[in-house]
Amino acid sequence: MHLTAYGADAFPFTEEHLKQLEEEIEEKAKGWPEKVKHELHTEHELIRAKRKAYICKGCRETGYSWSFYCKQCDFDLHPKCALKDDEDTGSEKGKEGWVCDGDVCRRA
Fold this sequence. Notes:
Elements: H1 2-6, H2 15-29, E1 35-38, E2 41-55, E3 62-70, E4 75-77, H3 79-82, E5 98-101, E6 104-107
Parallel strand pairs: 1-6
Antiparallel strand pairs: 1-2, 2-3, 3-4, 5-6
């Protein structure tokens, strides 16, 4: 699973390195909004969620770890697809091009 989830970044396959990768992802996720509205799923807000594995409805690729998810519709987007305007999917809250109303953000 580590190679699938992290790709070439998973090498070397040591517990210490994999723990570091997980910490980096967790830190990056702290900067993402809790909820987003997205044009591919206008019915409900998408909630930032920790998921084991899913198929992204934006790019149709398998995702692991974090997703923006609608439980009612079983709809997932990779963070990179949900927050596409932000190059490295870092914190877009308050950045140009986004409008936030509390914890819910959408592209302007």
